[in-house]
Design brief:
- The protein has six helices and five strands.
- It is an alpha/beta fold and 190 residues long.
- It has a five-stranded parallel β-sheet with strand order 2-1-3-4-5.
- It is elongated, with a radius of gyration of 22 Å.
- It is found in: Membrane.
Length: 190
């Protein structure tokens, strides 16, 4: 169990709002979920009271040898101080190397990434990561797999218990919560 990408994006925007960083660029790899990331950002900025300005969205392959010249050219075309990034840990290393080559790292540039791009926070970040990169990291890495599974099962059991309390039955495994109640109600909770 961990924070969803939507929750992480909400936290990113809270930080950006706090510092009045209203103009930004979104950079994504083609990592699964990148379209959802961009869609959520677009809907968030469209419905927010804060005057956000999404200057550009760049989505491209971020792997060594993919097309370094094209990547550098794309990065040179953006003109922003704030960058929201969605990619894997390995792809982030590549992106930050390319961004360094075109002068987009250092004072005056803010890079905000989800926990996916950071990887294991107990390990020192790679040299390609800029000093001061901002990331939304949950405390899930502090817990063992056993603790996380226990919490996940507890959430499900609490949900089932609440459903039983509210509806008076627990659906069979092959049914859904909207199915009508059968003549015999399952009153036992395991």
């Amino acid at each position: 169990m961990g924070a969803s990408i939507e929750q992480q994006i909400n936290a990113m925007f809270k930080v950006m709002e706090e510092y009045n960083w209203g103009n930004f660029v979104v950079i994504t790899s083609l990592y699964p979920g990148y379209e959802t990331f961009v869609d959520y950002i677009r809907s968030f900025t469209d419905t927010s009271y804060f005057l956000w300005e999404l200057q550009d969205v760049l989505s491209f392959e971020m792997s060594v040898g993919a097309n370094d010249i094209r990547t550098r050219r794309l990065l040179q075309q953006v003109d922003s101080q704030v960058y929201l990034v969605y990619c894997s840990h390995e792809e982030a290393q590549y992106l930050f190397r390319m961004a360094s080559d075109v002068g987009l790292l250092g004072p005056g540039y803010i890079w905000v990434v989800p926990s996916l791009a950071v990887g294991n926070p107990e390990v020192s970040p790679p040299d390609s990561f800029p000093v001061g990169v901002i990331s939304i990291i949950t405390d899930r890495w502090r817990k063992t797999l056993r603790q996380r599974v226990r919490e996940g099962v507890a959430v499900i059991v609490k949900g089932v218990h609440s459903f039983h309390k509210y509806r008076g039955f627990i659906p069979e495994g092959h049914m859904d919560c909207n199915s009508p109640v059968k003549s015999f109600a399952n009153n036992s909770l395991f």
